[in-house]
């Protein structure tokens, strides 16, 4: 009985994703974003830790390649940051498949990248965008994160 009660309490956190905001470019947002150990904004991310998320999206067009970009904003100022080179090809991080992607199919994307920042104890916006081979975003979203010292 206790196991059932614990499962019932933890189930909503496992099923429901993080509420995210659209990007200023009005690109589609993913169907659902799940961030490990974060259920509401701002997510707390220690420097040296990992940004670890899964998300589901449906492309609105076909694409033979998909590029990933993670940007950090402090207000309207973009903080210089680039995903590690091997993570920029999003096709390598689609669950059970790669590219090409087809319009209308549901795809799961997993991002796990080190949290590096030149500052701590601030709240920033993280912006994740996947871009198709035509240079247009397949999706884009923003969420808040509190960067803390390790």
From TrEMBL:
<keyword id="KW-0964">Secreted</keyword>
<feature type="domain" description="MD-2-related lipid-recognition">
    <location>
        <begin position="20"/>
        <end position="145"/>
    </location>
</feature>
<dbReference type="InterPro" id="IPR014756">
    <property type="entry name" value="Ig_E-set"/>
</dbReference>
<feature type="signal peptide">
    <location>
        <begin position="1"/>
        <end position="19"/>
    </location>
</feature>
<protein>
    <recommendedName>
        <fullName>MD-2-related lipid-recognition domain-containing protein</fullName>
    </recommendedName>
</protein>
<dbReference type="InterPro" id="IPR003172">
    <property type="entry name" value="ML_dom"/>
</dbReference>
<dbReference type="GO" id="GO:0032367">
    <property type="term" value="P:intracellular cholesterol transport"/>
</dbReference>
<dbReference type="Pfam" id="PF02221">
    <property type="entry name" value="E1_DerP2_DerF2"/>
</dbReference>
<dbReference type="InterPro" id="IPR033916">
    <property type="entry name" value="ML_Npc2-like"/>
</dbReference>
<comment type="similarity">
    <text>Belongs to the NPC2 family.</text>
</comment>
<keyword id="KW-0732">Signal</keyword>
<dbReference type="GO" id="GO:0005576">
    <property type="term" value="C:extracellular region"/>
</dbReference>
């Amino acid at each position: 009985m206790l196991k059932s009660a614990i499962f019932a309490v933890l189930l909503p956190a496992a099923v429901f994703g993080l509420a995210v905001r659209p990007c200023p470019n009005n690109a589609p947002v993913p169907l659902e974003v799940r961030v490990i150990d974060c259920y509401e904004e701002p997510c707390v991310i220690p420097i040296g830790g990992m940004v670890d998320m899964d998300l589901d999206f449906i492309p609105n067009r076909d694409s033979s390649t998909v590029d990933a970009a993670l940007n950090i904003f402090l207000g309207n100022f973009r903080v210089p940051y680039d995903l590690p080179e091997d993570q920029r090809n999003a096709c390598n991080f689609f669950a059970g498949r790669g590219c090409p992607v087809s319009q209308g199919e549901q795809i799961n994307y997993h991002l796990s990248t080190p949290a590096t920042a030149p500052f701590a104890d601030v709240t920033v916006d993280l912006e994740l965008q996947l871009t198709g081979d035509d240079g247009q975003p397949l999706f884009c979203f923003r969420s808040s994160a509190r960067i803390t010292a390790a």
